[in-house]
Amino acid sequence: MIDTLYILSAGRSGSTLLNLVLGSHPRAVAVSELTQLPYDVIRRNPCTCSAPIGECPFWLAVARHVRAELGIDLWRTPEALNLGCMVDPRRRNEPPVTNRYAWAWKLRHGLVYLDELGFPLPRALRGEFDHGIANTIRLHDVIRRVSGRDVVVDASKSYLKGVALYRARPGQTRLILLSRNGRASFYSRLRDGYGRNQSLRAWRNYYRHALPLLNRRVPPEDVIRVKYEDLAADPAREIERICAFAGLPHVPGMLDFTAAEHHVTSGNDMRMQSGMRIRPDTAWQKGLAPADERYFELWAGATNRRLGY
Asked: Is the pTM of the predicted complex or chain greater than 0.90?
């Protein structure tokens, strides 16, 4: 039986929205970007139930299980819980991680990516990464027990982690590849003041790396592709399609996702809003300047077309 749905997507593609809608199913629980949990504790992020994370009954119960089963006190030493989050245990991200630590972290994950593509890596070099995967699986188990739900919906988005979780438990794990027209993501970052290269790079590089990895490591029947535009245009149809993929009965009330109680501590700020409706966001179609459109097409048009745009 499927008990884990993992959402993969570049940023600003609607993963928080999809996570909350799927987490509104009576048999599912949304945890958004669970990889960031140690960082959320360090920053004392609020939970969507309106309580601070350190006072939320749900996360208090999770922390008790984590301490009993993993020997880690989530409140005193959150950085000790290796879930793949870039938290420097010597600095606890206050101030932020050093450049040296960040580069070492990225190098380690780059080597794991090459290993997954068929360039063998000594197992010792995968140790910390694989430890994070094992901890995530145990944490998913804890969350299912605490919530009383059958399916954890994890929107941590990392293609490397998503594939590793699938390979560890292929019978119980399914992946959702969420995409949005790259021009929309590009425009969103430009509007926030980022330069062209920075606005484009994260989105383009995500799918350039994710697609080959999924094609190599995950059977196509165990990955469902979802476009944000389709979700916004006809949410009932898309959610019914995803539920069928996950082996869950479709529940129409899921679309009223703000009416359900969630315990999400990371992701887009929309998670804290109430009374939201799913609606298309097409601002980029009028707002993206012709010169920026040409830049996008030159450097990312091919990737966008691979995603069906």
From this structure: yes
**Region at 46 (left for phi over 0; alpha for psi -120 to 50; beta for the rest):** beta
DSSP single-letter state for residue 31: E
CA dihedral of 283, 284, 285, 288, whole degrees rounded to 10: 130
What's the pLDDT tens digit per position in 273-291? Answer: 555 667 788 999 999 999 9
Worst-scoring range by mean pLDDT, 104-113, 221-230, 292-301?
Answer: 104-113
Going from N- to C-terminal start, the domains of the chain cover 4-83+124-306
**Alpha-helical segments (H) within 117-257:** 127-147, 159-168, 182-191, 196-217, 228-233, 235-246
CA dihedral 25, 236, 153, 79 (to 10 degrees): -110
From 141, 167, 136, 153, select the one nearest 246 (Cα to Cα): 153
CA within 13 Å, CB half, 261: 7
CATH number of 4-83+124-306: 3.40.50.300
Which pair of tokens denotes residue 282?
Answer: 């097409």
Query: Using 50, 70 and 90 to split pLDDT, how confident is the model at 93?
Result: low
